[in-house]
TrEMBL record:
Protein name per the record: DUF4402 domain-containing protein
Protein's UniProt keywords contain Heme: no
Presence of the UniProt keyword Signal in the record: yes
Region spans: Disordered: 30-89
Length: 221
């Protein structure tokens, strides 16, 4: 008996919270010396330390010093304003397009796979699944941050896609166009593409509109 079920599948990328880059701010010591028969006033020193004053002679020596305490580590992902230990250029990811396999049809047992080529963007079907047209779209994302910084991007290799009616499939072999050492350009930007292979089985028998999310995390390396 011939059986056919319509299927559409798309996976949206979920950008997780950006990470702030911490940088240490060195401190110093302040000291003041007073000399003479009258009152000597020492200068003010700024830094992480104390101000000390010494008087030589018949007068009193007064030294003034201002010590600036360490404001602490950068709080991630939302640092308080004015913390000098934070680089105020966060790294962030914006998803520009989601993966979309277009329109498909399950035939026979419906067990098959659809490859969405990372280089060409073409989709190729295998097994009990055929192409019904529609645009196949690769995922695309933009990373922004500090210029010429090396970053790290993490994403899963497999996610589950589901339809509210109960159908399920897996998006496996998720790959991207990122190099082994992703680097933001002179404008602090990096664009990359990502895609995967859709696998259907008996759990996809009802067809439907499959949806899934790909969590992506980006941070300075």
């Amino acid at each position: 008996m011939f059986r056919a079920a319509l299927l559409a599948a798309s996976a949206c990328a979920l950008a997780l919270a950006p990470v702030w880059q911490a940088s240490a701010k060195p401190g110093g010591n302040g000291s003041g010396n007073g000399n003479g028969a009258s009152n000597g006033n020492g200068g003010v020193g700024n830094g992480n330390g104390n101000g000390n004053g010494n008087g030589n002679g018949g007068g009193n020596g007064n030294g003034g010093g201002n010590g600036n305490s360490d404001p602490g580590a950068c709080t991630k992902p939302n640092p308080p304003p004015g913390n000098p230990n934070c680089n105020q250029t966060p790294v962030a990811l914006t998803v520009q397009t989601d993966i979309d396999f277009g329109r498909l049809v399950l035939v026979g047992d419906g067990i098959g796979r659809v490859v969405l080529d990372l280089g060409t963007g073409n989709k190729v079907t295998f097994g009990g699944i055929d192409d019904l047209g529609g645009f196949a779209i690769k995922g695309k994302a933009l990373v922004t941050g500090a210029p010429n910084r090396v970053i790290r991007i993490d994403m899963p290799t497999t996610i589950t896609m589901a339809d509210p009616a109960g159908s399920q499939a897996e998006l496996r072999e998720i790959v991207s166009s990122l190099s082994a050492l992703p680097l933001l350009d002179g404008n602090g930007e990096l664009t990359f593409e990502f895609t995967g292979t859709l696998y259907t089985d008996s759990a996809t028998a009802l067809g439907g509109m499959l949806r899934g999310r790909i969590p992506i995390t980006v941070q300075y390396d």
